Amino acid sequence: MLRKEMTKIEIEKELAGKGDYVLIDNITRFAKESLPVETRKFIYIKLAEIYEKRNMFSDAGDISGKLAEMAIVMSEKANYFTRETENYIKAGFFDKADLAIKKIIANVKASERPKIMNEIKEFYKNQANTYEKEKRRSLAVKTYEKILTLNISDAEKDEINKKLLVLYKELGMMPKYMTMMQKVGKMRT
After folding, report:
1. Which of 77, 98, 124, 159 is the most buried (most CB within 10 A)?
2. Which distant-in-sequence residues (6+ apart) come within 8 Å of 27 by Cβ?
3. What's the rounded Cα separation, in Å, for the pair 134 and 37?
4. How far is CA 98 from CA 19, 40, 110, 111, 181, in A?
5. What global pTM score does this model have?
6. Residue in 81, 20, 96 with CA at minimum distance from that of residue 55
C-alpha cells in the first residue's frame, strides 16, 4: 500500500510487478492524499506513462496538464503543455488541444512560440499520416481539416487539399469532393 511518507524508491518497489490497471487504480487513489509536491509529480509522471502505453491519450493529456501546472521552470512547463497537446491530438480531442495550445502561448517567451507551434503542426501532420496508414480515413480527414485551420504555408495547404481530395473520394463525401476538386483545379491553373 502506498503511503505519503514513502520515498521514490519505495514507491517504485511497491508499484513493481503490478498490472497497468491495478497501477492506475493505486496511483489514482494515492494522488488524492495530501502529498509533497515532488512525490505527487513523481506519481503523475508514472501515471502519464501508463496512460500513454495503454493508448489512453485523453487521460495522459489531463495528467500532463496537471504536471505543467505543478512545474516551476518555464521550459518544463512548456514541455508538459506540449505533451498535453500531443496527447489530446492523439485522442482526437482537438478542442482540448486548442486550449492546451493557448496555455503554451501564455506560458512561453514570444521567441519560443514559433518553434513550439511548428512542432505541434508537425505532430498534427504525423497523426493524420498515421490515420491514413491505419486506414482510419475519417479521422485522417478530421485531422487534415484541422491542420487547414492552423497557420500554414500555401504549399502546405495545397498538399493537404490534395490529400483531402483523395480521402473525400474514398469516403464517398461527394459534395466535399466536388468543392475540393474545384479548389485543387484552381490551384493547378
Report:
1. 124
2. 2, 15, 43, 46, 47, 50
3. 40
4. 33, 26, 18, 20, 29
5. 0.85
6. 20
The Cα–Cα gap between 50 and 52 comes to: 5
Burial label for 141, CB within 10 Å (0-12, 13-18, 19+), is: buried
Percent with pLDDT over 70 in the chain: 98
Distance CA 131, CA 139 (A): 6
Kindly tell me if the per-residue pLDDT of 3 is higher than 80: no
Are 49 and 21 in contact, with CB atoms under 8 Å apart? Answer: no
User: In whole angstroms, what is the distance from residue 179 CA to residue 120 CA?
Assistant: 28
- Residue 183's contacts (CB-CB under 8 Å, 6 or more residues apart) are 161
In 3D space, the residue among 71, 100, 76 whose CA is nearest the CA of residue 88 turns out to be 100
- pLDDT value at residue 187: 56
pLDDT reported for residue 50: 95
